[in-house]
Amino acid sequence: MSNMSYMEKLLGGVEVEWKTLGEVAEIKRGTSITKKNVTRGEIPVIAGGRTPAYFHNVSNRTGQTIVIAGSGAYAGFLTWWEQPIFVSDAFTVKAQGEVLPKYCYYWLQGKQQQLHEMQSGGGVPHVYPRNVAPLQIPILCPENPKKSLEIQAEIVRVLDTFTELTTELTTELNARKKQYNYYRDKLLSFEEGEVEWKMLGDIANIKNGKDWKSLGTGDIPVYGSGGIMQYVDKFAYDKPTVLIPRKGSITNIFYVDLPFWNVDTIYYTEIDTNQIIPKFFYYFMKTIDMMQLDTGSGRPSLTQAILNQIKVPLPALTEQARIVVILDKFDALTNSITEGLPREIELRQKQYEYYRDLLLSFPKPDAEVVA
């Protein structure tokens, strides 16, 4: 039976009643706590971010729990927990009775964008329990609670299968990345007398970026320390280069072999290709711990003077080319969004979202209450 036929059979003729989230779940604020009041332990403290803020030795929630971040840039961000947690600057949604917790979570996941759009406040954005309580959730087979829970459980089982596959692929990708980093560092480690070494300033000229705001719109990417910012109609450089941040995200090093423009937060390099292959230079620079070279008192910064003193190995160009071929293959497998595991994960995620929306899309009530 095809997936579509299975879904149609599962949901065919199912009656739906819409209830507000506040009617079927307990929505409860977390407990305020600061880092100085935390005793180090293994209990995640969930606040306004996408990951635990720190770890405590006591919990205030146990069992299957939905958490929605309460404030900050990620206010409204949804997470699912099955272990004890301490909920701080966030609130929990605990489905009860006629709604399975995981069914409620998957339904809310389809509302993630809407949750973010509930942010309010002139300074720090907030999302409050009162914002999400009026959201209406579909209750299946309201006249037959047992069947309703059975259908919800089956929907959860199907979506869990997709989630587990994506998780397995992500775990595999992380293992491959560790393997890639190991082999990259091994291939690019040379003894002092094994190859010639030169200062970076002797093999490349570091060049500053410029403002782009007076340029017209086009198809030339504009790079800053965070990546591509905009597209313009003029380029600053059109040869293979390595972009090295000057301020901000100083660990973001880019290899670019197409025309580009760069702003003043990131340098580009004019590379002496008689001495070093640009891609080899890029891979070597990725092994450098840029944070150790930080000269900024607040915002991370790298100066040309510091960068020019980096010692760079110069094996024969044929050996450089061999190393680049090997690392390109590893890089495609672990980082490419057009091939390898990242592409597979992206496809699985889209497949999961398609079936989640298919399974949780029912005729809407006449009007959904908006907070």
How would you characterize the overall build of this protein?
- 35% of the residues lie in helices and 22% in strands.
- It is α+β, with helices and mostly antiparallel strands and 371 residues long.
- The chain has 3 domains: 17-139, DNA methylase specificity domains (Adenine-n6-DNA-methyltransferase TaqI, Chain A, domain 2), CATH 3.90.220; 144-190 and 319-366; 196-314, DNA methylase specificity domains (Adenine-n6-DNA-methyltransferase TaqI, Chain A, domain 2, Alpha-Beta Complex).
- It has a 4-stranded antiparallel β-sheet. Strands 11-17-14-15 form a 4-stranded antiparallel β-sheet. It has a 3-stranded mixed β-sheet with strand order 4-3-7, with no helix packed on it.
- A hairpin with an 8-residue loop joins strand 5 and strand 6.
- What Rg, in angstroms, do the CA atoms define? 26 Å
**Binned strand content:** 15-25%
Number of helical segments? 11
Share of residues in helices: 25-40%
Largest sheet, strands/sense/barrel = 4 strands, antiparallel
Mean pLDDT across the residues is 87
Instruction: State the shape.
Output: elongated
Please identify the structural class as seen in this structure: alpha+beta
Q: How far apart are the first and last residues' alpha carbons, in Å?
A: 42 Å
Report the CATH architecture of the largest domain: Alpha-Beta Complex
Instruction: Count all strands and give the number.
Output: 18
Order of strands side by side in the largest beta sheet? 2-8-5-6
What is the N-to-C order of secondary-structure elements (H for helix, E for strand)? HEHEEEEEEEHHHEHEHEEEEEEEHHEHH
CATH C-level label of the largest domain: Alpha Beta
By CATH, the topology of the largest domain is Adenine-n6-DNA-methyltransferase TaqI, Chain A, domain 2
User: pLDDT under 50 segments (min length 5)?
Assistant: 367-371
Q: What is the name of the CATH superfamily of the largest domain?
A: DNA methylase specificity domains
Number of domains: 3
